[in-house]
Structure formats: C-alpha cells, structure tokens
Amino acid sequence: MSLDARIQQSVVVNLSNRPAPVHVGPFVIGVDPTTANPNINYATPRPGAAITGADVADLVAAFRDADRVPRLEYVVGCAPELEPLLVAAGFAVEARHTYLCCRPETLRATATPEGYTLRAPDNDGERAALIGAQHDAFGGGSVASAEDVARMRRAQDAGGVALMAVTGDDVCVGGAQGIPPSGGLSEVAGVAVRAPFRRRGLAGALTADLTGRLFGAGVEIAWLEAGGEDSWRVYTRVGYQPAGQRLYMALR
C-alpha cells in the first residue's frame, strides 16, 4: 500500500472511531454528537474507492440529516477524481496542505528549553489546562469544555498521546496530541504554544518528544501538516519531511 493510501486509511479509521460515524457509500463521516464544529465533524473517502456524483449527493444529504456542515479532508492522490465532483456540487476549497512524515530513523532529538517540563496530562484538570492553552494559542479563547476534555480522555484511553508544556510554577503554556495509532501510523495535531512563550524552542521540543513517544509505543510513521512557514521550519528541523498533499473542501 502506498504512503498516500496508508495515510488516507488511517483517517478513515480515525473517523470511524468517532462516537457516531456515518458510512455513506465510499465515504465515512466522523460525527461527534457533542459538537457541531466542522473541524471535528468531517468526511473522507476510502482510499481507491470509485466515486460518482450520486455518491457526493448522498454524502451531502447525510450531512444535512446529521445537522452538520458538509466538509471533507482527504489525501489528493487517493481520490484524484473527487475535487471536480465536489466543485460541481457547490463545494469550495478551504485549503491545500502538504503533509509531512517522520520515521524513527529521521527523528532528531530536541532539548526542552530550560525552565519548562513536558509531561502527559493524567487527570481532567490537566487535560483542561492543555486544551485551554491550545485554544488560546489558536485564537479561540482559553476555556476547555467538558466535551473537549472527554474527547481527549477517550483518545488517550484508545492509545493516543497528549503532551503539555508547563513552567516551573506548573502553568501550562502549550501542548500537542498524537491521534490513536492505526496501521502503524499516527497523526500529530494541535501543536500549540501561547504567544508570550513562543520563539523559545517549545514547539520543536513538543513535536519531537511527542513523536518519540509515539515511536516508543510502536508507531512506524508519524505525520502532520504545517500551517505556515514558521511551523514548517519547526517540523522539518525535528525530522519531518514533505510526503504528499491533502485537500480541505466545504459546502457552506
């Protein structure tokens, strides 16, 4: 199986493990009843599946039935015919991202900046602090809902990894997560550092440490997406390498 197909299949499995997944022809929608956030409730195609305009129409209807915004994320190489079908149905491109991969032999050890500690949250209070730091870093406020915390707890219970960066007085200033592994792969997501604590090497330390923990748990390939030039530099510096393209499309 190609790397593109392995990445795509891992996303299919991740969405299928959501609390209320919906399977529609060649697609799976990862529905989470606790939130309507389109960044959580989205669909992806099964790698290599034949897709028609009728399949896309059925997908849109399933999103409407679930009271969710029709939205997809997928590896372009696994469904090259899908974009024009989505455009014809009224979808628009939100983003095109390069995904990067890291293997144990390419990971570069990165020191944690002096005065900070990296550790996994082991109670709901620490999970809330981590999520709050991520929300703050991404401009979404600093409050973690009970549903956010429960989602992180479920991911950890399923084999995912969460990591928080804390100061000497135990204030969480950033964090990252590794999605529960599937087929030897895990996605690294939510790498975030609060603005006052950036440019100190924390993002690189979080990424490298989290990735190392995933490899220690048996993951063969960790993958992620860079949101801009700064994060691209961070990720390539710790051993991630460009590997393929992902596409985000939505019907608003």
From TrEMBL:
Gene3D superfamilies: 3.40.630.30. Residues 116-252 form the N-acetyltransferase domain. GO terms for molecular function: acyltransferase activity, transferring groups other than amino-acyl groups. It comes from the Bacteria. SUPFAM superfamilies: Acyl-CoA N-acyltransferases (Nat). This is N-acetyltransferase domain-containing protein. It comes from Dactylosporangium siamense.
